[in-house]
Amino acid sequence: MTIVIRPQAFDPWQELQDYQRASKLGASFGATAVFVGSMRDFNEGETVQAMRLEHYQGMTERHLEKICQQAQSRWDMLDCLIVHRVGELRPSDPIVLVAVWSAHRAAAFDASRFLMEELKSSAPFWKKEQLAAGGGRWVEKNSPG
Amino acid sequence: MTIVIRPQAFDPWQELQDYQRASKLGASFGATAVFVGSMRDFNEGETVQAMRLEHYQGMTERHLEKICQQAQSRWDMLDCLIVHRVGELRPSDPIVLVAVWSAHRAAAFDASRFLMEELKSSAPFWKKEQLAAGGGRWVEKNSPG
Amino acid sequence: MSIQVRYFAALRERMGREHDQVDVFPEATVAAVWARAAGDTPLPTNTLCAVNMEYAEPSASVRDGDEVAFFPPVTGG
Amino acid sequence: MSIQVRYFAALRERMGREHDQVDVFPEATVAAVWARAAGDTPLPTNTLCAVNMEYAEPSASVRDGDEVAFFPPVTGG
Fold first, then answer.
1. Which single residue of A73, B15, B41, D40 could bond B91 by disulfide (Cβ 3.0 to 4.6 Å)?
2. Model-level pTM?
3. Domain D2-71: which CATH number of 1.10.3720.10, 3.30.590.10, 3.40.1050.10, 3.10.20.30
């Protein structure tokens, strides 16, 4: 179970390759479900030029650990990885990576979706968009999943 | 929309990195949902040493295209990629990769799961396991998702 | 009418061959193709059938030159 | 009792500062901490509260040395 808050840009596929190579999962897992959220260049009718992602250092990590533990108690997860970007983002930058490894596919699908929904609804992160038309605006709330 | 049947081993994360770099998706997508199925070294109470994956060349590709089109008609998918291994596999080898890109996360989650369930229930592939205890056995049916 | 018949996986092993070429009467069904190819062996339960690479019922009729396939439940992914 | 108060995101900008140090009476609630820190400004609708990095209701009581945070709805992922 690994949680990373990262101020630098990351490539989710590179992260997964590195993580899985270093892991001791061997041939125990039959299923990996992954979700990647990335920055779009368009939101609520406006072209978005850049984004700043703020978090509550300490609480964010602790909260993500808690939702991983909840997932672990509900599904047979062998491992999970969450990487979340903070700082200054550009369109097409990955924002979040959630990956779940399990023996069978239902657990991986269900747990990865649960983790994403919980993360979006309750982990303390905030987005401020820089609009192409000028000015910044805080994203007011996340869309339901 | 890309469908690949591959007789060689593949690294799903490398496939995704290469595919996405070559794609023209830009910053239009906010969500990518991925499922990877891999070969376990254990199934139905037996240690499995190797596996042979057979398919019906022509029908398999055609059938996978059909389920991609079904997904495309049901969800706002921007792109999808299916890579499926055939031939001689070893434990921990990736068997299948399904990836869906969309603007918002619900479509990516739903479509990727739909594609996997349809693939498992209807695409013409067959697995024969080589058991550590000796002898081969055809997998008789897939578990429900 | 001439029909190309194909077998896959466990059914291929059970038949001891990958394909057959059979002649059937016009309006013949997939089931009739099986009977002609397999002789006395009844179509095993759960066998799936395809005509020209599309799933078909045993009651579906075939046409000259069609490819008819028989195979066990699929286990990919 | 001395309480460390923190503000995030749009609320931080609105307050014009990242944190406050306030003194409150024993048995004070999160809401009382807000009132002490923000003066006449009512707690904005939808504001979330945390005590020592765990979500808490405005009615939750605080203890000496606690860190109390106020922030708008979260928008990560």
1. B41
2. 0.96
3. 3.10.20.30
